[in-house]
Amino acid sequence: MTSTPAWAYLSDDGTGEEGTALSRESLAARARQALLDLIDDEGLGEGDTLPATGALAERFGVSRTVVREALSALAALGIIEITNGRSASVRAQDHSLIRFSLARALRESPGGGFTALMDLRAPLEARAARLAAVSLASDERSADRQGLADLLREMGEALEDSERYPQLDLRLHGEITRLSGNLALQSVLDAVRTPLFRAMQDLRATRDTRGLVGAEHAEHVRIVEAILVGDAHGAEAAMAEHMESVASLDAPAAPEHPHPG
């Protein structure tokens, strides 16, 4: 079923469903969503221009003032750019907005964000591992396979280094996501890099204390080996097992950030 765009609910008589007058703020909020729908529905990307203010007002059935307020709000969020004498245009994706939104959602989630972050991260990481294995099965990806193998070897050499290993751990997960070729996966997982790295540091301290150092590297080895031979199912399963292992590690909570590893 095709969803109805937000602008379809904007009416030129300025009344709501029950006939009560909508405030300018309500209309501007709806117009903002209508503009987002327009950008999404028409697949507009960086540098693409939106229709002129007058055309948007006619299309949405609202005043030019309401449209200008909606455009200004989206410009303030970094979604579009407004240049004097020209129509508004779509800006490049600002990953800081994704990071801000996810960080806020994690902070407001029960348990300090750990469960929420793992619920978000686990299926995406597993999917990324699967796609990376499919991607590297091509004979043309020998340089990427070698780079991944070299990174794994470097991790093994740094296993006893409590500062270096978490850095390489973060690099590994980032590289697997990059190799997946899925930009959406990259955007979401990149958005949690900062809390993730801090959490990896916390978990390393927990593993040091409990004598568990090495188990996580064995899991990384299984993931990478499956990817390198193009075993999509094996890579996905190994990553899923790694995520379950991380989620089950009862690390002490740090107040500033969640705890995945």
Can you give a write-up of this model?
This protein is mostly helical. The protein has eleven helices and two strands; from the N terminus they run αααββαααααααα. Strands 1-2 form a two-stranded antiparallel sheet.
**Residue-averaged pLDDT, rounded?**
84
| Class inferred from helices and paired strands | mainly alpha
| N-to-C CA distance | 40 Å
* The CATH class of the largest domain: Mainly Alpha
How many β-strand stretches?
A: 2
Spatial order of the strands forming the largest sheet? 1-2
Question: Judging from the principal axes of the Cα atoms, what is the shape?
Answer: elongated
Oligomer: single chain
How big a fraction of the residues is strand?
Answer: under 5%
Q: How many whole angstroms does the radius of gyration measure?
A: 23 Å
CATH topology of the largest domain: Four Helix Bundle (Hemerythrin (Met), subunit A)
* CATH superfamily heading of the largest domain: GntR ligand-binding domain-like
Overall tally of structural domains: 2
As a percent range, the share of helical residues equals: 55-70%
Spans where pLDDT lies below 50 across 5 or more residues: 11-22, 251-261
- Sketch the major β-sheet: 2 strands, antiparallel
Run of helices and strands: HHHEEHHHHHHHH
CATH architecture of the largest domain: Up-down Bundle
Count of helical segments? 11
Sequence-ordered SSE layout with sheet pairings:
Elements: H1 24-41, H2 53-60, H3 64-76, E1 80-81, E2 89-90, H4 95-107, H5 114-136, H6 142-157, H7 164-180, H8 183-191, H9 193-210, H10 215-228, H11 232-248
Antiparallel strand pairs: 1-2
